[in-house]
Specification:
Blueprint lengths: L1 H23 L8 H14 L4 H9 L1 H24 L12 H23 L8 H18 L7 H26 L21 H28 L6
Helix pairs in contact: 2-3, 3-4, 4-8, 5-6, 5-8, 6-8, 7-8
Amino acid sequence: MIRKIVYAIFIGIIIAGVLMFLSAFPFGENKMLVGKYYIENATNDAGAPNVVTAVTLLYRGFDTLGEVMVLFTAALGVSIIFAVEEKKKKVVQPPNFVVRVGSRIVFTFILLTGFYIFMHGHLTPGGGFQGGALIATGFLLLYLSYSDTGINRKRFMVAEGLGGIIYVFIGLIGLFVKGSFLANFLPKGTMFDLLSAGILLPLYIAIGLKVGSEFAGIVDDFMCEARCTGGEG
């Protein structure tokens, strides 16, 4: 009986909360004050024409830091899983001739495009995640083209760690200088210039380095696993 009374009280509290919420936000009425603020002030606050960039790195910078940590955890998990698995005889498949020849031409352009995307994330659609992922696809192409391809994991780990340190360091400077994490403490510059938007450009460079290194590490783990599987014959 007591349990039923507790359940009834709990359900009543939920219903009362829902009704209070609906009375405060009538159906169909525009109460998206946060979204309205972003649209009206993001360009001025960030000094960049890309509103999505301002929201991602300034207004919800903690969330972006969490996303980077999720990717780091995934890359670490993949490395641990493949590290503890039993090593088997290496089976090398002959690389495709067309892919091998084509990779010599497009690999450099893939890297340049990836760098361009995260270097211009505050000006055009894109950013550190997109640019970093594109850079990792360039290394995937090398793995598919040459059977002896392998990345220098120590260098990629240094790049990954450097990207994370830069991101957190910039955020802490904003905390001490402006009073909030990832607050913009650099000059905004001239709109549409590459060296503009304050901290957005160095943040995207840091994210691009970190994401590209982590994805390249995941690719390296999976491709090594694919080459190291097979029977003894």
